[in-house]
Write a structure and sequence with these properties.
Layout: H1 3-8, E1 12-15, H2 17-30, H3 35-50, H4 61-69, E2 80-85, E3 88-92, H5 98-116, E4 118-126, H6 132-136, E5 144-150, E6 171-175, E7 183-187, H7 194-202, E8 212-213, H8 223-228, E9 230-231, H9 237-252, H10 266-269, E10 277-285, H11 292-307, H12 323-335, E11 337-340, H13 341-354
Parallel strand pairs: 3-4
Antiparallel strand pairs: 1-11, 2-3, 4-10, 5-6, 5-10, 6-7, 8-9
Family: Belongs to the LDH2/MDH2 oxidoreductase family.
GO molecular function, one term: oxidoreductase activity
Protein name: Ldh family oxidoreductase
Length: about 350
């Protein structure tokens, strides 16, 4: 079941991108974020919704606001570059919002890539940063390939284990094309992002039995049981291997928290100890290897080659990674972003509590 189906299968409304971004930004400013940081965070979340990735969109606003209110995430902290060595850097986030730290880290990676051909920035002391694709796509307009990965609270068991010892540790890679939509692979190393289970729980809908294990280790279709249990790794032991390696690159390399130093599901359940989340951001300057226009033309050809494969029975169209989201974004930018009415009502209640005018 796709995340967008959670929206289409319940009573919903359409909200223009600019209105939802303005509304979300106002909510973050109401709990102490400055205008620039609030705008960066709101843009990250609403863009995820625009692309149909609702699990990483404004459904996160209430939990982010709650964490900012109790200062377990700092609304005013500013990042600091603490190591800088030509093509690499290490950033200390000082417990700022992950979206804010992540943007500055990728900006720095791109700057380094322009000078050295590649830039790699490791981050510690950050927080949940939203959809990974957002950061990977930041460098596309500069004829670069963007890559990122991050760690999350422990919600997955190691292969063959039974308790939570790993996040689903998503990563993303974005590759520019000439006339086609860019290739954007954004995947958690679980069958689905846990946010989709949270969204199903919020909207009282069942989940497929290959999304999560209940606390007793058995597959479940109950979103609450799945939320209280563990996510299933994609591809069995291969998904476990990917999440383990992504955790090492994003967190052990940067000095961020990993394993027993992360509390279970701490975004939603731990409100006293900062997360100390780690990320990595990498930018590759295509011009350092090949003429960018030639590269992008060949990417177009590669995309067409995938599109033109003989279709299996019942398949109407073959996509490359990121294409469905790009098409969704174009449609919703024109028509408005489709939101469950229950989510809008939750934001209205939060707005009333914070003295913010609802934008819808």
């Amino acid at each position: 079941m796709k995340a967008e189906n959670f929206v289409e299968n319940v009573e919903n409304v359409k909200v223009p991108f600019s209105d939802m971004k303005e509304w979300s930004q106002a909510l973050f400013q109401a709990v102490g974020m400055d205008e620039e940081d609030a705008e960066i965070t709101a843009d990250n979340l609403v863009t995820a919704d625009l692309r149909g990735v609702y699990s990483h969109g404004v459904m996160r606003v209430p939990i982010y606001v709650k964490r900012l209110q109790v200062n377990v995430t700092s609304p005013t902290a500013k990042y600091e570059v603490i190591r800088d060595s030509k093509a690499t850097a290490l950033i200390e986030g000082h417990n700022a919002m992950g979206q804010v730290v992540g943007k500055h880290a990728m900006d720095l990676a791109a700057k380094k890539a322009k000078e050295y051909g590649v830039g790699y920035v490791a981050v510690r002391g950050s927080n949940h940063y939203g959809a990974s694709a957002h950061f990977a796509q930041m460098v596309l307009s500069e004829d670069m390939i963007g890559m990122t990965g991050t760690i999350g609270g422990n919600i997955m068991a190691p292969w063959g284990g039974t308790d939570r010892r790993l996040g689903n540790n998503p990563f993303a890679i974005a590759i520019p094309a000439l006339t086609k939509e860019p290739i954007v692979l954004d995947m958690a190393n679980s069958v689905v992002a846990r946010g989709k289970i949270v969204l199903a729980k919020k909207t009282n809908q069942p989940i497929p039995d290959d999304w999560a294990f209940a606390p007793d280790g058995t597959p479940t279709t109950d979103a609450t049981d799945g939320y209280n249990g563990t996510v299933q790794p994609v591809g069995g032991y291969k998904g476990y291997g990917l999440t383990f390696i992504t955790g090492i690159l994003s967190s052990i390399l940067s000095g961020a928290a990993f394993g027993q130093h992360l509390t279970d599901s701490d975004l939603y359940e731990e409100f006293t100890i900062p997360q100390n989340i780690g990320h990595y951001m990498q930018a590759i300057d295509i011009a350092s290897f090949i003429d960018p226009e030639l590269f992008k033309r060949q990417i177009d050809e590669a995309i067409e080659y995938m599109h033109n494969s003989p279709k299996a029975k019942g398949v109407e169209r073959i996509y490359v990674p990121g294409e469905p989201e790009a098409l969704k974004a174009k449609k919703q930018m024109e028509e408005g972003i489709q939101y469950p009415l229950s989510m809008i009502e939750e934001l209205k209640e939060l707005s009333q509590e914070l003295g913010v005018s609802a934008r819808f």
